[in-house]
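Notes on consecutive records. When two proteins share a document, each keeps its own sequence and its own token line. Never mix them. Below: protein one.
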Amino acid sequence: MSGHVKNVKNMTAKSVYEYINSMRSDLNRMEAKGIVDSSFINKIDTLDSELTGMKQFWINQKAVSVRSAFVFHTAMHNAKLVLGKMKERFKNVDETGDNPAVACDSLLVMPIISEVYQKTAQAAEEKQSLDPFLPNEMLKLISALRTTAKLVSLLPALHEELRETDKNQLRKTAVELDKKFVASNLLNDV
């Protein structure tokens, strides 16, 4: 992976990966000290912004199949859901007595988020030469992320997921994916 995929804050894929590693180091320090640093919320927001950019990239991507684009879009969506729940738990740490448990729980999902991002960035760079097995690997990673996040209370409940879904954005995404699907079918008919 050469790191040329640019996102919202113009971080390269490599620098996002390094940023995630620095977040993991911060979480390790919090766990060791037994106290949560509330400034970590800013780091969650920065990573969330980068994932939003990558999620948007897959909505607009026309160089890969609709199925592949949807899988990578879904991966970013799920990583963002986990980050959102993580942020909520960090914000409410004083009221919930979740200190340092939220740091320990976050440490369990961050390696998976890192791998999800790394493979999604790899796919973004490969596009037409995309490894045909990568989307299936990603589906397994999404499942592992959701399962792990659920076990450590970092996955929103279904009603929370639905409440936080932007219906207009969902409709727009569905329309874009439908356009891609129709276009690819027309090309296959030629």
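Protein two starts on the next line and is unrelated to protein one.
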Amino acid sequence: MLTFKERTDAWNGMMLTQGRIAKEHAKRKELSFNDGLENFGTPILMTYLPLAILVLILSGNFDIVYLAALLFSLAATALGIFIVSFSFTIMAYVVARMLGGEAKLGRLYYMVSLVAAPTFVFTIVINIAVMLLKSIMAVMSFPLAAKGILQLAGDAVAVSVTLYGFYLLTVSIDALYKFGKPKSVATWLAPTIVLVAAGALLFMTVLLDLLKFLIKTL
């Protein structure tokens, strides 16, 4: 099991040195499912909880119902991250096995978490920075155009980090299975397409139900 410093050093290393850290951790067979869970759980406490507190302070709403909603949101986020990450890893594991990969599911889950954790932290930090800057702009009466440009810049950086995360995922899977970049891309691309399609289908289903409800009430 990794210490907190070892864990954060590994995250920094993944973002900065890519292949070296991935290859080092792919060889450490003691790092498995439980370490992956900690990799996913730590960023929530490090970033999402401070973000929730920041939203609470900026809103000035300290009502007990609002506090309960924030706590529920935190718990729902943690559960959602676990469900999505585990579902993704199971599908990626099936694809990897079909392509000849032999590493165990827990090892793959850890390598996925090694990429997802720093990517998640970086994205949340960007969101916090944008939120703070927009609040400062509001106080200083900046024009709406400046706020819009700031939001677009923040979104662009977040998308760039996400794309970089997919590259790191390719490197990590290749380091674990050693079956080349094309198969590594296929390993994460297939479950990503499935999850995006499932999310889109769920969104459309909810939207249609909402429209039906509105039509009946009008």
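For the record: The longest helix spans residues 181-217.
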